[in-house]
């Protein structure tokens, strides 16, 4: 229901926007808004992914079964990716097409790369904190912080340094400061997802995760 529900929402919103004569003179704000809604929905799904299995003890049974840790992680990730792929795929493909034929203004390239990276990296980050944290809200906030706040801060610093120091020395004047979300943020986000992937595998292998919800 979630898969085809989001797909229907994207189709409906794009149908309404494309029938508006003034849509093609606007920026990419509608696509960014839809993308953030999808990202939030994906974060909620991933943050609670391992919670029930961890608290009920099913996760421990899976770990002592012939199914390996990598199989458990990859299977869960494939399920999350398949759940949001139709909506994300349609959004980014139409967005890229509109930008390629110059029907929308604004630097859409960096945003498209950022959301594409988010689609692949956020489930990994969310699964890690879903396993590591006891409470759902703690896992959700930690996943959003590691998946967005930290990459935005580091990516902005890298973009500022690159534009105002490296490019200044190369071409002799202060370069244009790129806006976020950008390629720099996507790169940092990919690095965070890689670290979370390795840490997630280690925690499953060593059984380093809470079994019950922490008491308040």
Task: Characterise the protein shown here.
This protein has one domain (2-206). The model is unreliable at 172-178 (pLDDT under 50). It has 216 residues and is mainly α. It has 8 helices and no strands. Helix 2 (29-47) packs parallel to helix 6 (108-132) and helix 7 (136-171) crosses helix 8. 29% of the residues are buried.
Question: Could you outline the blueprint of secondary structure elements for this entry?
Answer:
Blueprint (H helix, E strand, L loop, with lengths): L1 H17 L10 H19 L3 H6 L1 H7 L4 H32 L7 H25 L3 H36 L11 H24 L10
Helix pairs in contact: 1-5, 2-5, 2-6, 2-7, 5-6, 6-7, 6-8, 7-8
State the main characteristics:
mainly alpha, single chain
Give unreliable regions as ranges: 172-178
Separate helix tally: 8
Termini gap:
33 Å
| Overall structural domain count | 1
Short description:
Helices cover 77% and strands 0% of the residues.
